[in-house]
Design brief:
Helix content is 10%, strand content 51%. It is mainly β. It has a single domain, classed as Beta Barrel (OB fold (Dihydrolipoamide Acetyltransferase, E2P)), CATH 2.40.50.100. It has a four-stranded antiparallel beta sheet with strand order 3-2-1-4. Strand 2 (22-30) and strand 3 form a beta hairpin.
């Protein structure tokens, strides 16, 4: 699959918290660095996401805010 997004991070699923419709997936992309994604529970099941699974995090956003 080819993607236009250039921000791709490899990591491992650290935790999956499922709700009725949405789930929160925490991925460790580096020691002590986590990325949290909110996706549908059906996507969690379709992708077979579980603790320890290796995944790729793809980030494509039209707006990124920074505060200093």
């Amino acid at each position: 699959m080819a993607l236009s997004a250039r921000n791709l991070l490899k990591g491992k699923v650290k935790e999956v918290t499922k709700g009725m419709v949405m789930a929160e997936v925490t991925i460790e992309v580096a020691p002590g660095v986590d990325v949290v994604s909110a996706i549908t529970t059906s996507s969690v099941e379709r992708l077979g996401l579980a603790t320890g699974k290796e995944v790729e995090v793809v980030i494509k956003a039209t707006s990124v805010m920074l505060n200093a």
